[in-house]
Amino acid sequence: MSLRSTAMRGISSVLFHTGLVGRLGAAAGYVWPYAGYRVLTFHRVDDENDPFLPSMTTARFAARMAHIARHYVVLPLDELAERVRRGAAPRNALAITFDDGYRSNLTHAAPILARYGLPATVFLVSGYIGTPHALWFDRLALALKNSRRSEVRLDAGAPLPLTTIEERLRALTGAQKYFKALPAREHQPQLERVLASLEPAALEPPKRFMLSWDEVHALRGLGFSIGAHTETHPILSRLEPEDARREIQGSRRAIERALGRPVTTFAYPNGGVDDYTPTTVRLVAEAGFRCAVTTKRGLNTAATPPFELRRGGAWDMHLPTYALQTAFYQLTDG
Fold it and tell me: Model pTM?
C-alpha cells in the first residue's frame, strides 16, 4: 500500500469514527447552489470470493448500506431524476442501481436493502433472464478460469500465458478489453473461436447466475424498480442503428410484457464515453424511456442531460475511506 493510501486511510478512520464523515456527507449537499444527486452502481453481491467473477461481499455491502441509510436520502432513480428536473429533490440525495440482473441481487443484496428501507433499480439484460446461460464476459471468465491450455491467442499478437491464476486474471482483463473494442459483426465469431481454443472444463456456471422472471417479480414486490439494459449486452456504439434499436426496444418490450407495467429507465452496456453515441441516445429516447445512465462519474443536476446521467461510486474496501470518498463524490467529475 502506498504512503498516500495509508495516509488517506488514517485520516478517513479518524473522521469516520468521530462521526465527522457523516457531517461532511450532509454538508456536501449544500456546497453547490443547486441540488444534485449521485447514482451508485453495483453488480454482484455474494460471498463466493471468486476473482474471476468479482463481487462485493454481503458484509461489506451491508456496512455500506448502513452508512448510506444514516447519511443520505435514497430514492428510486426515475423518481429522483424527475424531482431534480422539477427542482424538488432533497439535498444529499442518492440512487442505488444494479446492472445485468444477477440472481444475487435478490438472494444477497435485496434482504440488506430491505433491512434499511432503501429502494434500488435493477437493469436487466432481458435475453438472459430466466435462462441458465451466462453473459458473454462471464463465459469468457469461466473459460479462462477452467482452461486446460497454458496460453491463449486473441489475435495475431503474442499469446497470453495462462500458467498461474495471476496470468489468467491478466489475460481476462486484456481479453475483455479486446472483445469490447471489436466491431459487432466480429464479436461473436471471435468470442466462440477463443472460447473453443481455451478447451475449458465448463463454459456455463455450475449454478444459475441470472434472475428468473419469477424472481424479478419478487424484486418488484420488495420495492425494487426494474430498468432495461438491452437484450444481449452489446456495446451499442459498435452496432448499426437498426441493430441498436432492436436491442433497446426489444429489452423494454420483454420486461414490460413480463411485468405488465411500463419500463422508464435504461442503462447503456459498459456505459463509457466510447460505448454509446448521439444516435444511441436518440434511439433510447425514441423507445419511450424517461432517462438513461452511463458510467461517467460525477454529480447529476437539473442541467445533466436526462439520457446521459452520470453514475459510479467509491469502491474502496476500507469502509471509512469509502464513506469519505462517497461524501466528496459529488465534487469530482472523473
Answer: 0.85
